[in-house]
Amino acid sequence: MDLDLRKLRYFTAVAEHGHFGRAAERLHIAQPVLSRQIRALERELGCELLERTTRSVRLTAAGEQLYADAPGVLAAAVAATRRAYGAARGARRLVLGFAPGLTVSPAVRAFAQAHPGVEVELLHLNWFEQAEAMRDGRADVGYLRQPFDRAGLKTLRVGSEPKVVCLPAAHPLAARRRVRHADLDGEHVIDAQTRRISTIEEKLELVAAGLGITMIPRSVARYYSRPDVVHRTISDAEEFEICLAVADGHRRPHLEDFVAIAARALSG
Description:
- Keywords: DNA-binding, Transcription, Transcription regulation.
- By secondary structure, the chain is α/β, with parallel strands linked by helices.
- It has helices at 5-17, 20-27, 31-45, 61-88, 105-114, 132-135, 200-208, 218-223, 255-266; strands at 50-52, 57-59, 93-98, 119-124, 141-145, 153-161, 163-168, 178-179, 214-217, 229-234, 240-247.
- It has a five-stranded mixed sheet. The protein has a four-stranded mixed sheet with strand order 8-10-7-9. A two-stranded antiparallel sheet has the order 1-2.
- A hairpin with a 4-residue loop joins strand 1 and strand 2 (57-59).
- It is flat, with a radius of gyration of 24 Å.
């Protein structure tokens, strides 16, 4: 049975707010209309999704399951729509997403020489959305750095780069050319597990303020270079793998050619 995506969005709103009135206000529709849509969804599925009272609603076991599955269903629909829209815009365009600090110009130049009539659009990706851009259809191909979730993606390794530690310029270890993991014992490490951070700039600002150290790829440290922060290679750390990635089943003209040309241009 195919789900009606509009009704699924309506159901999700009710589940999030626990109230038909508040959900209707958020959706900008009349409450009776929303109630009829949810009833219609329940009839289609053959089960009750909500336990209704005069003041609020609660999810049934079936409702809990549908609410858990809804984000994946809606995301897949958005991705399919974006890919269809991209195809409708023509076969003469590719979107290349790239991670912070990585340089894509050699691949773009090499591809332009082989396919001068194909436009390559660039999409800068934050570290936390690298893989999602391929899965949700925003980018046709990604030039990414591990780690990221590879689910639903095909990847091709094209290189690697060292891990460095970023330190305040006045830090005692800043005088060294290289450090080892043992040298960093006892240091406060700033990362996504210890502090909510969305950008590299935030992370380096905290380092410069003396609130900790952080470990990032060398290209990122160089790209975001600043005088009050130094970076030193961690000699016994594993390197970051760099790869090209496309979504499984993604079919676009010139995509395979781009991946082959980019792999040669970016390998190192």
